[in-house]
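Lab notebook, bench 4. The sequencing result for the construct came back, and we need a structural model before the next group meeting so we can plan mutations. Quick request posted to the team channel:

Model the 3D structure of this chain.
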Amino acid sequence: MSAVDAGHQQLEQLLARAFHQGRAVLANELIDEVRRQVKEETGAAVNYEVPLIGKEHGHLLRTVAPRLALFLEDKRLGPRSRSVFLSFFWRDTLYFVSAPEFYDHVQQALGLDSEAFGEVLGSWQRTGRSSAGLLPAGD
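Done. Here's the predicted structure in token form:
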């Protein structure tokens, strides 16, 4: 399997974790609906939008995950907060994945145990940057 195929497969695995999805042309309505649902369930709701057009799976590991961790640290929310969800725009569909599911996927994709991933998350929360030695160069 080529690196591109493996990256595509990993992206599909992430999107399979979506708790809701819909047509991307209805993004505003869908995001509002999911925001209300998450707020009702958890008392708060934070959406982090991620366009995937022209991006590879490695972009999620190298850029999105670290920046989201820093963003959440600034908001005083943990990366596993159930109040946080990501909106992934992929092709003509919008996928909603909770932050805990997203970071579980990232941890599995990196092949790290809980302790090692906790250290990575801590670094991301402080810097918003990935460690060049840890993450794959590309898909």
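The chain has a mean pLDDT of 90.
Will bring this to the meeting.
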